[in-house]
Write a structure and sequence with these properties.
Layout (H helix, E strand, L loop, with lengths): L2 H29 L2 H7 L5 H15 L2 H13 L5 H14 L2 H6 L9 H4 L3 H18 L3 H27 L6 H9 L3 H15 L2 H12 L6 H14 L1 H7 L5 H32 L10 H19 L3 H11 L19 H28 L6 H28 L6 H37 L5 H27 L2 H4 L2 H25 L4 H32 L5 H11 L1 H13 L4
Helix pairs in contact: 1-9, 2-18, 3-5, 4-5, 4-14, 4-15, 5-15, 5-16, 5-17, 8-9, 9-12, 11-13, 12-13, 12-16, 13-15, 13-16, 14-15, 15-16, 15-17, 18-19, 18-20, 18-21, 19-20, 20-24, 21-23, 21-24, 23-24, 23-26
Length: about 575
């Protein structure tokens, strides 16, 4: 093996790793928020978690990405430790899919259709189709498919380069003696562990082993311990991603390491014990790429079957290794989720929906204080306002950092919707505080609205409650139809505020109301009007996402002038919220 063969070997490794990264990234973007949705829909059913972990890993071709996601989700308090265990186990099986794909490198035949399965033949076709999709495709989906095809082609080409570079080693005595030394199972496990830890990908290290196996110089006895060690080496990713996170998130890494260590230890003992008793005939036989894929799959399925019934004990082990400490602060959003932008954006969206619910609760609680002031509820309104401030700061900072990541058009629109809405949610909390302070002023000064004013405010508050409910539903469900119902109520609120102000002036002139009450009423009405304005802004952001962006002012102007549905709804709400 000369100098140029070594260059080819490392060049092939570079192509292989880059192709795997490109393939995995493209598949992640294609999967989009389904990744996050799948993980969050986990039930306590461990088999469902196992299947989801298997399916997601097989879909994105990266158990490391799934592990990082799990650490981030547990760190943010979104997923419990118990639920993550079966997903970890499933991802170990899902990652074996790569090894089976790489067995295509060993295809040899004179038959046309079988020859077409050889990577040097079909991967070039994939690359050509992929670059056409990237250059000519107008949609993100087309470009993502193109990236997946090119990534796959680069991966397979890199694999072919590596196997070609090491082919001369088949007759090299030094190389053969090296793998003879690996018959020491502990040394084999160590080699698999170190190689996988360095490149942080069990799929890639298995691929390298498959390339070496094509020389025909590696036996089953040498390969089996290496494959087992590769499973331990992949834990390095979980270990690195757990740095600087909450104790619960660190427990995910502990469980991952414990699962692979126990599985390897038991598997190795059974293999060595069985060989000592039965003298397996296949031990000294040369292994090929298919054999490696088969051993990789059988071992991982065995480890899962062995430890899945004891997942509860793994959680207890993690709790003993890392005992809980009181008052540990849980971050709202975890930076590790940015490795998968669609998941990070989905969590931002969930937090924004939570802001919507808090804003509504805060406003309705504050409005009720106008009738009956309660100090405990007043303090709750203040606490909610601080919480909304915290959410807005966290989301704004996180989304700015996330903006540098590659996103699909759909995800980019979701980010725009969130950024356009979080300030409105935060401002709704401010208006809740303003209403609370108005109620506080009424109590401190011993003021009371007249029965007529109370009746008018009751109608206005009912309209405000409906607009908040519709806005929250439209935002949470991303429902453009419901969002279109917000603007007619907003106009209804504006007219109600104008009418109530005019009626108040009439009562002032007849002495039915005082100037002091007039100032408080004016503040209350102005806050209600601004609340409806913020609801309108949020609804428009929802509609804008559905239409992939538009001029907001032009849209509202055109709706009020030419939209028959708007006119109908405006009339209906006018009748529904009419002052007596």
């Amino acid at each position: 093996m000369d100098f140029f063969s070594i260059i080819t070997l490392f060049g092939g490794l570079a192509f292989f790793l880059y192709g795997m990264s490109m393939l995995s990234g493209g598949l992640e973007r294609m999967a989009g928020s389904k990744l996050e949705g799948g993980l969050k829909k986990l039930t306590t059913n461990r088999f469902m978690g196992l299947l989801l972990g298997l399916g997601i890993t097989a879909a994105i071709q990266s158990s490391s990405a799934v592990t990082v996601m799990l650490v981030g989700l547990v760190n943010s308090g979104i997923m419990s430790i118990g639920r993550s265990i079966s997903v970890i186990m499933g991802s170990n099986i899902g990652t074996t899919m790569t090894a089976w794909i790489l067995t295509l490198v060993g295809v040899e035949s004179d038959n046309f259709w079988i020859s077409l399965m050889k990577p040097e033949n079909f991967s070039l076709i994939f690359a050509f189709v992929g670059i056409l999709l990237i250059m000519a495709g107008k949609k993100d989906r087309q470009k993502n498919i193109g990236g997946i095809l090119i990534g796959f082609a680069i991966l397979m080409y890199g694999m072919k380069m590596m196997s070609g570079a090491v082919k001369p080693l088949a007759n090299n005595p030094a190389f053969i003696s090296l793998f003879t030394a690996f018959k020491n199972p502990l040394l084999g496990v160590l080699v698999g562990l170190v190689v996988t830890a360095v490149i942080q990908s069990s799929s890639a290290s298995v691929g390298i082993l498959q390339a070496l196996a094509l020389t025909g110089s590696i036996s089953y006895g040498a390969a089996i311990p290496i494959i087992m060690g590769q499973n331990i080496g992949t834990c390095v990713t979980a270990l690195i991603s757990s740095m600087g996170v909450t104790k619960n998130a660190k427990k995910v890494a502990v469980i991952h390491i414990a699962f692979n260590l126990i599985g390897t230890a038991v598997g190795l003992l059974l293999y060595l014990g069985g060989n000592a008793i039965f003298r397996f005939t296949f031990v000294d036989m040369p292994i090929d790429a298919v054999g490696i894929a088969l051993i990789h799959t059988v071992f991982n399925v065995f480890a899962v079957a062995l430890l899945l019934p004891f997942s509860g004990m793994l959680e207890k082990l993690a709790n003993k290794v890392l005992p809980d400490t009181p008052a540990e602060e849980i971050p709202l959003l975890d930076a590790r989720l940015m490795a998968t932008p669609s998941v990070a954006i989905a969590e931002c969206s969930a937090l924004a929906v939570k802001m919507s619910a808090i804003a509504k609760d805060s406003l309705m609680t504050a409005a009720a204080l106008l009738d009956h002031y309660d100090e405990e509820n007043a303090q709750q309104v203040l606490a909610w306002e601080k919480e909304l401030d915290q959410y807005e700061d966290a989301l704004g900072t996180y989304l700015v950092q996330l903006s540098v990541k590659r996103q699909t058009e759909k995800d980019s629109l979701r980010v725009s919707k969130i950024l356009h809405s979080i300030n409105d949610f935060e401002r709704l909390g401010d208006h809740a505080v303003n209403l609370m302070e108005a109620a506080q002023e009424l109590k401190e000064k011993g003021l009371r609205f007249s029965d007529k004013a109370k009746a008018e405010l009751a109608v206005l508050r009912a309209a405000i409650e409906e607009i908040l409910t519709l806005t929250g539903r439209a935002y949470e469900e991303n429902d453009g139809v419901t969002a279109r119902m917000v603007e007619p109520i907003e106009q209804c609120v504006d007219h109600l505020v104008t009418d109530i102000k005019a009626r108040h002036i009439d009562r002032l002139q007849t002495g039915e109301c005082s100037i002091a009450l007039g100032f408080v009423l004016s503040d209350v009405l102005n806050n209600f009007e601004r609340i409806s304005d913020h609801c309108s802004n949020i609804a428009v952001a929802v509609i804008a996402q559905a239409h992939k962006g538009f001029d907001t002012h032009q849209y509202l102007r055109q709706m009020k002038q030419d939209d028959a549905d708007y006119s109908r709804m405006r009339k209906e709400y006018g009748e529904k919220y009419r002052l007596n």
